[in-house]
Amino acid sequence: MSDSTATTEAPAEPPAPDTEGDEAKPNFIRLFGRYLTEANSVMVTIYSLVLAFLIGAILLIVSDEYTRSTFSYFFARPQDAWYASRDLVAESYTALFEGAILNFNTLASYQAGDAEFGNLLRPISETLTYATPLIFTGLAVGLAFRAGLFNIGAQGQLIFGMMGALIVGFTLDLPIWLHLPLAIIAGGLAGGLLGAVPGVLKAATGAHEVISSIMLNNIAALFLVWALGTAFLHSETQSDLVSKPVEESAVLPTLLSSLNPSLRVNLALIIGFAAAVFTWWLLSKSTFGFRIRAVGFNEHAAATAGMRIGSTYTTTMAAAGAFAGLGGAALALGVANGGITTNTALDYGFSGITVALLGRANPGGIVASALLFGALKAGALSAQPDVPVDISTLLQATIVLFIAAPALVKAILHLRTPRGGLVTLEAKGW
């Protein structure tokens, strides 16, 4: 008789449904929703633009006397305040769009056969004309940012580049294929020389580039005033403080004058795009660009790796100044080829700081933000007197405020913190 006992095994339970795989692979809508509610660099930039235009709309309403008066009896007839505010904001922003991109009245005239095609391109031509120097000054500030430097001297570098291109432009008598490149190079070299000064001072003495470069802005502006009063630069035909015009062989060719002679956009725009592509290659593909990024990320680690910090500061600031100088050459040889004045440079150098911030010091972003700010400037000037000209400066300043403080955008819109944390541009040495 056997002592063994029979055992009965419990039936196997059916496998649980695999839900982890579904959770690990969220669908596109869920991923896109997360991205929209996250304070990443792209969404912070987009939300900064939206918030800036909303604040601009509020200030337009507050500053308009008629619209403001409708709020005095808001509780009696709220629709009056709503319609007045809506119409004012819509008309103002439409005027900005028409002055910068496409005028709908001109479009209707063209479709009716009463206007030429070239007239349709005037707003976009003005936008590109104003954006061109901003591309160069934005690259000048953005390149320095990548090395941990704050190049606040782009305005002075642009002025020096403007004078360098002007001097070569009216003193030499050469064929266009030689004269124009020499004048452009002279502008870049003049800006680069001034840009190198803060780099040398920082490398040799530790002087902060913000202090030295902002002082050089004043020196450059005052030097321009003095130089325009000398017999060498002053116009021989005008009594105002205007320079001599450049020779015809040094004038940048316009791109759309065959369609309409009033279209001012010129070859400098193509050079600006090429400069942005070159900057991308320099930062992404070259050894020098790797050194710039390494020093900007951690100068102490870069020094430990054997990189020469001082020479990197100097060459980066010189290259940044050269970009700003090219922007000055674009002004002297392009839109102001009949002679420069103390107002020719406007505030392109200082606006380059806002362009670089909005573009996150990325060449592609800098080009896009330069086009945006060029559109704001062209639209505001074209929309006068219906729209205050200061609305362009207001929008730019508000955009920069939000871009420079992503935590503010995150708090206002209750966005989630991205995995890598909030990304901000920083310059070392403060």
Automatic annotation (TrEMBL):
Instruction: State the compartments where it is located.
Output: Cell membrane
Q: Compositional bias (Low complexity) spans? A: 1-11
Gene Ontology, cellular component aspect:
plasma membrane
Which Pfam families has this protein been placed in? BPD_transp_2
Residues that span the membrane, as ranges = 42-62, 127-146, 158-178, 184-204, 216-235, 263-283, 317-340, 394-413
Annotated membrane topology: Multi-pass membrane protein
Protein name, as recorded: ABC transporter permease
